[in-house]
Amino acid sequence: MFETLGRFNYRRRHLVLALTGVFVVAAIAWGTGVFGSLANGGFEAPDTEAYRAVRTIEQTVGRTGTDVIVLYRSDSRTLADPAFRQTVESHLSGLPTDEVLRTTTFWSTRSPAFVSKDQHSTYAVLTLAGADPEERLATFHKIADQVRQAPAGLDVKVGGEVAVFDEVNTQTEHDIVQAETISLPIVLVLLVVVFGGLVAASLPLFVGGLAILGAFVVLRALTTFTDVSVFSINIVTMIGLGLAIDYALFIVTRFREQLALGNDVETALTVTMSTAGRTVAFSGVTVGVAIASLVLFPVMFLRSMAYGGAAAVLVAMIAALTALPALLAVLGHRVNNLRLPFLKRGGGLGSTEHGAWYKLAHSVMKRPIRYVVVLVPLLLVLGIPFLQAQLGGVDHRALPAGADSRTVTETLQSDFAGAGGSDVLVAARLSAADPAAALAPYIAELERVPGVESVWLGGYEDGVASVVVHTHYTSQELPAREVVNGVRAVTPPAGTSVEAGGDTAALVDLLHVLGQRVPWMAGFIVLVTFALLFVAFGSIVLPAKALLMNVLSLSASFGAMVWIFQDGNLSGLLDFTPAGFLDATNPVLLFAVLFGLSMDYEVFLLSRIREEYDRTGDNTRAVALGLQRTGGIITSAALLLIIVVGAFATSGIVFVKMIGIGLVIAITIDATVVRALLVPATMRLLGRANWWAPAPLARWWQRHGFRETGPVQEQQPEPELTRV
To answer: pLDDT tens for residues 268-284?
Structure first.
């Protein structure tokens, strides 16, 4: 199959490149329009009690959210000064009434919640026109400059839900440009060092560009059917560029090896596709399946990450198996042109059978028990902090310190006595002439719930009453969740049905949904990955070992995430504000992505080991040669991927920063401790059992499995290694 694909790419190289050119033009013209089609938010779980409660209230009583908060402050005047009121009301009266449906201030309500403790600040709440968040964001863009224009004598800052979305979008676009500006020059330099020449070094970036553009096209198409989060662009850039570079690195390296052996271009390309191409295909499917498992969650943010990640992997794989081989066919030996004389490189990485990686593998395999006994407990110990993980939601602290909308929220919490805490919104369905009287006993019971400060009837319309339960706890504090549970435990009056919503209730429901779906996601990934690895290598031992290795590297990575982002270690160096918890969706996202990336390197390493084992029948020699031929490539690929994803550690959005740093830690552990040390040690201990499968499965694989070489040669006794 892959040999045929290699010959096709060689013989139809000009057609393949022409079609690639057409695709690039179309992707630039249409696919890049995805930025205007993406949705905001998406961190709540739909069809939950909290989601239904808020929708019921908004569709009947009216919207409850604070679209825009305009914070006013004067250092010289207080709210008692008539000039303060006149200036604020004059500023607000100039806003278009068709865009701003309602304005709520201290002077319209006389509520002390609108007055700061020092009397020098107040705020106004704006309700914007628009049926959904995207329409309200468009409305905000029309009035943003006018709202932010501070009147004489006052300082103005703008916050609220819509303003937060706007700042997140702006920050996301800035972060992507910044990450690419940082990573691409470094990646290009490293590629030149790896390949020793400019032509070969440019090819992975060519595939990376195709992967990103192709993923944009897929996402743009998906936005016509469903909502896709703006944060999907981050994972497209990270995974698309990173894996495209990895795949191109393996293809180009193998092609240059074959040319160095004296093969003609067609033969070199055919062999490359039947070996490295096959490996790239299996890696792409494995990584894609792992990331695609996120669609099992109903949360729009996670589903969008599945769309973006799977699209990026799929396009990167297709580009590496079609456009790249066609370009190599055109280049031929010119792939080695523009070599830099001070960089000495042979035909490919890892071409010496007794190099440093070969010696490392033999050193490890002489002392396999020692390595396993030391490294396995070490990785488990590094994972211990994750046992104390606390999960929460996204709040204003996700934005960088100093962002206007974050400053507004923090000012309200610290300077306004009546604006702190959070609300539980209860949607009560009842039929009563006097809803206040009918709900009075229920409200009295709610007031007795521990942690509740006050309860009031927020409104009544079309048989739905909005009951507001206020607590002094902020929405992310753990006691606030107990308040939600207490509110939900109160029995409503006969003939009345109630559902509790609000930010904390939405978080409680999100955690419940994630807890329900995670086992299904993990089971799906494990079963599909196990099956794919069996088809690739004909063993049930290797897939089981690979899964255990992944658990070890994931546990260490998750432990580091808790130590850094929950406990706040390195927060000054990494420039973020620790919230005391991890965003609940991030461990799920990282599990899928890291599992896929770990399998990426596992497939690359085991493919070369299997190739050598089929050729020699010597397990120990196969492991040593496999590591020698792939160790340098895997290390280079890991370093390049670390640069790409690590650039996102500079993001101003905390959970994007966490994804970048989490990937850096996991890739580092996986490419060094796991692949270079634990894999050779465990494969030495298992010996020929590495390749065992039950007889029926072994016979099936001999007939139908994907192999790179011919039948296994007669197996020779393994050389003796002294175990320590």
So the answer is: 999 999 988 988 998 89
